[in-house]
Design a protein that fits this description.
2 domains; alpha+beta; five-stranded antiparallel sheet; single chain; 26% helix; 5 helices
């Protein structure tokens, strides 16, 4: 009663003098006080909510910063530790630590600046819808194991997916399969490029897989978001104009001494890839002995969004406009005898 007293008194004054013109200044004063009190109460409620939200954000950022500090110490160990057991334990420590930190919604916009320079790749799509964390473990026998997390932003919801590397148990038809995060074709991603196919927004991924002591792999994959889950792989690649079939990803394998990668020419929207050949005739069909020939191919999208492989010699990549070079141009006639 005491708390509501002033407000009730003001209302009673307003009712008492409502029909008196002589008391119009008093009514104006009373209503002004009531409006002032309402706005004051609203301001206090909003300020309290902002303070609580700001306090929660500050706590989350502090957790992320402390976690990043721990990861900076752990991450180099899965490369430099002396034994496989120590490297495996370090890789899983990073995995478990990120599992906790990425449960915080604020982690999506967190920079991870120091972590990115210590063996963990962090890629964010230009539209801020996808964020990828990948790293690899190198064992003493030269083989590689991959770890990762994928975050997606759908409206205001952040979803986090652990990436499980199943490369070792995948079938030979892996280039034709669409995979969910639990059956990921592991790679250390170094480039993410948005594009569209069949009106769907997709992301082209370039990755490196050290594979084994005998060979390395360059991986070009596709990531897209279905209604229920993210999907790796989509029938978006063809190995030539005359190739009727499409592949879900491109995997190039070569000798382990070769540093193989894909390069994206943004101005011309093409992917440049090494042309691989056997290092000697008897090594045909054995990728362990394949090396770059010094020539290049490109992948160029057609109107339907399919990336089609072509010989680089068919394109002019100079300062002028890119255009197909003439093929089988007829020779000019010989000059007539005088």
């Amino acid at each position: 009663m005491a708390a509501a007293g002033p407000a009730r008194w003001l209302l009673s004054v307003a009712k008492t003098y409502n029909h008196s013109r002589a008391n119009k200044p008093l009514l104006t004063f009373v209503y002004s006080i009531m409006i002032f009190r309402c706005f004051t109460l609203l301001f206090l409620l909003i300020s309290g909510n902002f303070l609580r939200a700001g306090s929660a954000d500050s706590l989350a950022i502090k957790q992320l910063q402390e976690g990043e500090t721990r990861l900076k110490i752990i991450a180099p160990e899965f490369i430099a530790a002396k034994t496989d057991a120590e490297r495996i334990e370090a890789a899983w420590q990073v995995y478990r630590t990120l599992d906790t930190l990425l449960s915080l919604p604020e982690s999506f916009d967190y920079g991870w600046d120091s972590l990115k320079s210590r063996t963990v790749s962090v890629l964010v799509s230009p539209d801020k819808k996808v964020k990828l964390y990948t790293w690899n473990l190198i064992l003493k026998d030269g083989s590689f194991k991959h770890f990762g997390y994928l975050q997606t932003r759908r409206k205001k919801t952040i979803e986090t997916y652990p990436l499980m590397d199943t490369t070792a148990v995948q079938s030979k038809d892996i280039i034709d399969e669409e995979l969910d995060p639990a059956a990921w074709f592991g790679a250390l991603y170094y480039r993410l490029i948005p594009f569209k196919k069949n009106s769907k927004k997709m992301y082209l991924l370039f990755g490196f897989d050290g594979n084994t002591a005998n060979s390395n792999k360059a991986v070009m994959d596709v990531l897209w978001l279905s209604k229920s889950t993210p999907i790796f792989g989509y029938p978006a690649f063809r190995q030539g104009e005359d190739d009727p079939s499409t592949e879900c990803r491109v995997v190039m394998e070569c000798h382990n001494d070769v540093n193989l990668s894909f390069y994206y020419e943004a101005d011309k929207q093409i992917v440049i890839a090494d042309k691989l050949v056997p290092s000697f005739p008897e090594a045909k069909d054995n990728p362990y002995y394949y090396i770059p020939s010094g020539d290049y191919d490109i992948y160029k999208r057609n109107r339907k969004g399919t990336w089609i492989r072509r010989d680089l010699k068919d394109w002019d990549l100079g300062q002028g406009q890119m255009r197909p070079s003439p093929v089988n141009r007829p020779m000019p006639p010989a000059p007539a005898d005088k």
